[in-house]
Structure formats: C-alpha cells, structure tokens
Design goal:
It is built from eleven helices and 21 strands. The chain is globular and about 75 Å long. The protein starts with 6 loop residues before the first strand and ends with a helix. It has 453 residues and is α/β, with parallel strands linked by helices. The strands form four sheets. The protein has a nine-stranded mixed beta sheet. Strands 15-16-14-13-17-20-21 form a seven-stranded mixed beta sheet. It folds into three domains: 38 residues; 201 residues, 3-Layer(aba) Sandwich (Rossmann fold), CATH 3.40.50.300; 172 residues, Ribosomal Protein S5, domain 2, CATH 3.30.230. 26% of the residues lie in helices and 25% in strands. It binds thymidine-5'-diphosphate and magnesium ion. Thymidine-5'-diphosphate (TYD) binds next to helix 2 and helix 3.
Length: 453
C-alpha cells in the first residue's frame, strides 16, 4: 500500500498545497499553512471504534429563551438582539479611533450597574488611563474591575478565579499566547487567543466581548476564522470627522442581523440617538438639485436618509464615478439602466454620490432614490419638497415593490413629509397624511418628474 504523503492546508481559506510555505498563494495570508496528517486507509477517520450513545431530542422540545441582561443602552441592547446572552462571545470591530473603547467602557459600566460582574481587560492602555477616561465619562463610580494585561495565560487564570459574568478584551490584537511563537497581532496569535477566550466563555458561562481592529480593506485584522468562532459580529462604523457612529450587527446567533444602533460622539462620550431619521436629515438645507430623501429600513427600523448626487461635465475620456455609503457596482447598474431604458446619457459627466450622515446603505430599495438624485443633479431640477422616494429598479427598467412599505411611509409622515414616490404593486398600502404616487417603470418616473425621457 502506497503511503499517503502529508498535505498542507491553509487554515484561512482552506486551499490545499503540496508543500509548506510561509504564505498561502490562494489568499495571500501569512503563516497560515498547517500540515494535515492523511487518514490511514480502510479504517476511516475514527479508526472503526464505537462511541457512546448521544441522547437525541426533537425540535419540538421546549427550551426557555436565554435570560438576557440589558445594559439600558437601548441602541446597544437592540443590536445584541434584546440584551446580552450569558456565555455568548461577541466581536466588536471598527477602525482605530472610531470609539470602540469608549463604547465598551460605557457598556461595561451599564452592565455592571445592571448586576453583572464585569471585568475590563485593556491591552492597549494602562489602568490609570482607562480610569481617567471613565471619570471623564462620569462612570468613575461604576463597579467595573480593571486589568491592564496582555498575557492570556495570566488573564485566563485570573478569570477562572474571579468568575465574572462579562469580560471585555480590548483588543484581541494585543493578546499574547505564550505557546504560540509569532508576534502579538499575527494571525496565529489572534486565532489562538480568540479560541481560548471563546472556549472559556462557553465553559464558564461568562460572556466575552472582544474588540478587533479593522484593516484598511475593512476586515477585522487577523483571521476570518475569529468571525466564525463568535456568536455575534458587530461593526462600529462612522466617519472620523463626523459625530455619528453606527453599531451594526453583521452576524448574530441570538437576534436579527443587519440591526443598527445609532450613537453620537460627544464631549461626554457616546450618546444614544433614538430618532436617527431626524439626525440624518438635520443637516439638510433648502431643497436643492441632486438631493433626495430615501425612506429605508435598517434592521427592524425605518430610517430616512438624504442621498446627494453631483453630476459635472469632464474633459476626461473616463469620467469619474465616486460613491460614499452605497455600492459602486449598483451605481453603475443604475446609470446603465437610465441610459438603455430612458435614453439619458452620463457619458462625459463625472458622477458623485453620497449618503449623508456616514450611513452605509445596502438595500436595493434605494435604487429609485439614487436614480432620482442623479437625474435631479443632471437636470439641475430640485424634486418637490417634502417628498420621500423608494423602490427597486430591475434591469428592464421596471420598478419592483419593496418590503415594509407601511413602516417607511409612517416614518416619513412622522418627520413631516407629505408625498411619496413608490413602486406600483405595493398592495394598496396607504398611510393617513401621505399622498403616494405609484410608478411602474423608470421611464414613466422620468417623464412624470422631469418631463424628459
Ligand atoms: P476610542 O474609544 O479610544 O477609539 P478606539 O478604541 O476605537 O480606538 O475613541 C477615541 C476617539 O473618541 C478620540 O479621537 C476622542 C474621541 N472621544 C470623544 O470625542 N469624546 C469622549 O468622551 C471620548 C472618551 C473620546
Ligand atoms: Mg481603543
């Protein structure tokens, strides 16, 4: 029998290599290739030995929902799916300086005051620094216990002895596992540290929140596997120059993903924004060409945002297509549909699109609002004031109905809007005080609104 040669697998992307190397050719990650021992033939992976009998239950068996602890910061509790679940592991990612430490220190104080024994481990700042920050935030009296430590063995021994209900690790990139040889922050260190902490969380029923820095490419630095290990992945986003911060659930085993919490960075720390629409629209001036209000849904909440477009002639053969807060591919699609279905050309024109307030929109329901902003900018014609717009555009130029129409219209009505341009076929949803104009395709919308087409 020919002996199987060992194979080498990248633990980051799973690519199989014939020999070891420092860098995976497939995904470009460093130091992730590990040797996998081949199975002995015939016996199978378990060597043919019998195991114990595992008791099976059925889906119908009653399971009490996990008792959650609420921090009282509603914007945070909602993103967590209704409070913190015991023994859960949460990863909070975000750019350096965006406010992760501030958010988690505030959360730690709230959870501690709610009766959860809380330990905050900082690998980046000295205890005195954290204490000073807490005093500045008015949290000096909160019963949070602090440690400034990076050695994971010491941290875990301390936690085994102290048995807290919640531990915050700020940040996972600074943690150091002494059995792994590479430097702190490297892929293997981050993975090993996260693994130890998540295992501890499950074994001891202690919730763990890991802070993770994000790389320039927008991913949590270190291996993607950390995202698979934890129960929740939250991203803390926002523009550095802007005061708005958005906490977004991108994965949640205990609640809806895509839920957002909105905060404002103030001199006294992060303040909750309970009415984000009002905040996102607060910077809107007089109705101007290229400005459109989109009635969107973020998670379970309706949110109104302003979409701004600028269209300007350019001598360049390749005009610019610049997008902030919306998908560039989707913009290209909408420009193509406008050209092909409505005969409106954007050749020779630079196009800039911006979602005001630093929110990132991923809903296709914003298509029509984006198209309206582009047309309004191109024609230099402001849209009627007090109007919101939403609807998905298909490649044929038809407008598709979108979900949660009633919620969108109600939110618009609440904020003083009186008319809405919506796709036809919305099952006759109507909201008192809102006049809706139904459109079945983009060409009709262009003709009706701009008298062109
Ligand atoms: P920080 O929480 O340290 O960011 P991270 O942990 O994500 O790196 O936040 C740093 C920024 O927040 C810093 O630029 C100053 C600002 N900030 C305020 O504006 N107000 C405050 O009360 C605090 C504590 C920080
Ligand atoms: Mg920090």
């Amino acid at each position: 029998m020919a002996k199987k040669s060992p194979s080498f697998t990248c633990s980051e992307c799973g690519a199989v290599h014939t020999r070891w190397s420092g860098r995976c050719d497939a995904c470009g990650a460093w130091n992730t290739i590990v040797e996998e021992r081949p199975l002995t033939e015939g016996a199978g992976a378990l060597g043919g030995k019998r195991g114990a009998h595992v008791p099976l239950t059925d889906l119908a068996s009653e399971e009490a929902p996990p008792p959650r602890t609420c921090s009282g910061l509603e914007e945070l509790d909602r993103v967590l799916g209704g409070g913190l679940v015991p023994a859960s592991a949460i990863l909070v990612g975000g750019d350096p300086g965006i406010g992760k430490s501030t958010l988690l220190l505030q959360a730690a104080a709230r959870f501690a005051e709610a009766g959860l024994s809380t330990v905050y481990v900082s690998g980046e700042e000295a205890s005195a620094q954290v204490r000073m920050r807490a005093q500045r935030l008015g949290l000096g009296k909160a019963p949070v216990r602090l440690a400034a430590e990076t050695n994971l063995r010491d941290i875990l021994s301390t936690l085994e002895a102290e048995r807290p209900g919640l531990v915050i690790i700020d940040s996972i990139q600074t943690m150091w596992v002494d059995t792994v040889e590479s430097a702190p922050g490297s892929v293997s260190q981050v993975r090993a540290a996260a693994h130890e902490l998540v295992t501890f969380a499950k074994r001891r029923g202690c919730s763990v929140i890991l802070v993770g820095h994000v790389t320039k490419e927008g991913q949590i630095a270190g291996p993607r596997v950390v995202e698979h290990m934890v129960d929740c992945v939250l991203y803390f986003e926002g523009e550095r120059g802007h005061q708005f911060r958005i906490l977004r659930a991108v994965k949640n085993r205990f609640g809806p993903a895509a839920e957002i919490g909105v905060f404002e960075m103030t001199g006294g720390g992060l303040a909750q924004v309970t009415n984000p629409s009002a905040l996102f629209l607060s910077e809107r001036g007089q109705p101007a060409a290229g400005s459109v209000v989109f009635a969107g849904i973020e998670g379970t909440r309706p949110v109104l945002v302003e979409i701004q477009a600028l269209v300007a002639p350019t001598p360049q053969a390749q005009p610019r297509r610049s997008v902030v807060g919306w998908d560039g591919q989707r913009l290209a699609m909408i420009l193509a549909v406008l050209e092909a279905r409505c005969g409106i050309l954007f050749a020779g024109l630079d196009v800039y699109l911006n979602v005001a307030g630093g929110l990132k929109i991923s809903e296709p329901a914003a298509d029509l609002a984006v198209a309206a902003a582009l047309l309004s900018a191109r024609e230099d014609a402001p849209l009627p004031p007090e109007t919101v717009i939403f609807g998905e555009i298909s490649l044929s130029g038809a407008l598709r109905p979108v979900g949660q129409m009633e919620n969108r219209l109600k939110e618009a009505q609440k904020l003083g809007f009186t008319t809405a341009i919506v796709p036809a076929g919305g099952k006759g949803v109507s909201v008192a005080g809102m006049a809706t104009t139904e459109m079945s395709d983009l060409a009709a919308f262009v003709g009706e609104t701009f008298g062109a087409g």
